[in-house]
Request: fold
Amino acid sequence: MRQAWIQSKEALRLRMTQPQQVAPGEPEAEMPPYMESFLAHLRVLVGVPFEYLVPDARLLPDESIRFFYLDRSFADRVVDGAIAVGKIGTREQAHHQAHEPAVRQQLDITERIVRSIQMRLGSFADLKSANDANRLTNGAADVITGFLLRSAAVSGWPQMDVRAHSTDLPEHLDPSSAAAQNAQLRTLRLERLSPSVMIALFQGIPALVTIEEPHHGVQFGVRPVFAGFQIDERKADGEQILVGSDSKPLFAPVRAANQRVLSIASLRRALFKAQNADSTMPQQTGGASLAVEVLNPPWRQRFEGTVDHAGDGGGRQSSGFLSSLSVAVRVSQPETRVALEAAIQNGAKP
Amino acid sequence: MSDTPPPPGQMYLYDNITPPLLDGSYRFNVSTDTTIDGTDQNLPGATNYFNVEGPRFTLTPSLVAGVFPPRNGHGSFQENVPHIALSRRTLPWERALDPSGLIGTPTVKQGDPPRPVGPAPWLALLLFEEGEYTILQNQKLEDVVPSAVYKRLGSPPNINCDAVKTTHSVLSGIMPSLDELTVLSHVRQVNKDDRELSAGSSDGWFSVVMSNRVAAPNSKCCACLVSLEERSDLVPKDPPADFIPILVEPGPIVLHPLAATNFSAQSRTPIVFPKEPFPFQITVSLVLLYSWKFECIGPGSFRDLMQGLDVAMFGTVADPGHPPVADTGHIKIALGDRAGVDETVLYRSPLAPFQLTRDPLGPYHSADQCRRVAPETGAEDITYACAFEVGRLLAAADARLAQELMRWRREGYRQSARADTFSAVSETLPLVQAIDVHTPAIPVVAAGATTSMLTGRGPAADRFGVDYLNQVIGLQPAALQDAWQLSSAAEAAAILGADAGTLGATVTAPAATPRAATTIDAVAANSSALTNLNAARDRIIANTAQKVGTP
Reply:
């Protein structure tokens, strides 16, 4: 009688002492594409119910933003659980045990194309082969950070521009410049979880996160104040005139008959007076010079690390903060100095 | 004005761009004065007519390059000035608003800026709220405008147009004055590479008409591009009065403690006059060229929302202690365990306020394997058990994934079985080269087998253990002879009923016919054998051809 190659007792002993029954270096049975894509999505918590992310609603109050590090062990366990489907006996267990290092390494690479898959930028096979080819330049499995934003802005302003940078770039920030591009962290996920909640995941630890108002084009705008509106004085090229780091507001009166109607003539009179005082403003000859003054470039909100803002009074740090991503001091100046140029440049982005 | 487009990402703004000729009917006279030798000999003159035509009572929608707020848009537009971009740069100035000067010259007071340069446009963008307007379609022009205006327009017959109807009081509140109209329109030149506004085959030039009204929060609005040609009855010479709140300095007597908290040194209380309580019900209609609706809903501006955000690391709660969050980021949750006992356990969201090291002890095969007990408190941490179960449930909900997992495992088993087979083969066959899953197995085994055939193999091993049988004492003829006192071993063997060979007698291999070593040349020279081979090959080809049915 032929002896079994391995007996149950012996197999058990081998599994305990030498989990890799398939020797390392032997070609792994590659994961089927759908399975790889599914598990990669799980890695960035796509599909994980919101209650698991925010176990208590008070952890994410209304109108709040919460920065976080992603717990990679949690994501690994989700993947383990997914692979556990159909795992009936020791044979499946041994197989999983043997393949787990390879699966984890592959998913560390593949999780970076989840966003491209979600955006339908190409087929999984194409994206994966391009990504696998770049795996060395793209660096090792990195820390994943991100934020959860619960705000009325999420539903009111779909298609906000969210970017994370590894260095704290100063304002007059042109996202298409080489410096900004080099410092930009890969966005692994940017998704609305519910009408008012957005999640973003970045590869690496950001020093600066910006959220920009979507660019619907060049807009004209006014800010409501008591008994009228307010605009910011601008130079002839559209740049804001600054007093210190603050913009210089100008009151725009309204009509008595209808208080949502700007009194253009009075506004023009005020601009004329301001121009007499400050010759960098355009002369009020007609429509163009008025248009420059009521420009309203998209707002860019900056969330910066505390490193550069230690002198600002510390901003608002969270008590549980333990390491270098912190957060999140609001920009001290009330205005981001986005020039007309930048506004239009940004406006050209899709 | 230059024809050079601005650099990418920038734009040029112009107050206005007027066409050489306004729209209308023109007559031109040609007369030539000729003098020959001091005497006038004028050539006969000629008179001709031509029209300069352009949009007047209707506007092709293709001329509209873009609008803001977007058509049918919902959003927080209460701080945006609506505007419309037209893809013809001269359009707002192609007609005269008031050619006969019925409106008059606006007053310029001391200290006022000089009047804006250029003619007033004949277009205005008026913003109406729900209930303030009615849009009428396909109206006769004479029904839309008053008869005096109709006459001044030249009484064009059979003109149908759209109209917007509103009350006089509403309209007078929003209608810009003559000079306001002038500054509400401008021309914009953008770089053609700039994707913004450059729809279709645009030349990069746009005329823009802005509204002077800002949408109120939570209102439904309709922006109407109207024609004001000859509407000197509606366009005022001077703008109406500004809203000036009457301010009352707070007196020394403070009536209410609540009010006191709101007063600071400079604070003043406005007394806001109510809007006209009895609007005059006089209706007016205007020629409507283009209109779009949008809804102004939402919570204030993007900027206010962003500036008002509560910024913190995850795990920070507005009211500390509700819920209590541990330093490690865990919170307590209630758990009914499988024994039916209610327990309080710890759970931490995957979103942690600090960087965590990755658990190197993987993989886990069941949720129970991931349960942990915190040594300090004795409380159970079910975070990773939860994660495991979530993954399991998500995967189980996906039928295709289950199939793919099966496929993946089957592939893995196949690999594993292959490796096992190889090791068994290697054990059995003394192969020259070791085989593993990397090497092409069949050539290696074939080469090994060929080598064995050529070099000869040692005696075949007793693979089935027959030799052991020979050692059974009752089956040995010598032992039998000895025990039974037989005369010869052959007799004992005969009693055992076996022929020689089965019972250990060594069978000698038949002598192989020795052959002389030959060479390829010698084989090739044997023409009769080659002919046989050729015939055999032809036979096989013919047979095959017949079987597969090829002629």
Observations:
- The first strand of chain A starts at residue 64 and ends at 70.
- Chain A touches chain B through 142 residues (CB under 8 Å).
- Residues 223-295 of chain A form one domain.
- The radius of gyration of chain A is 27 Å.
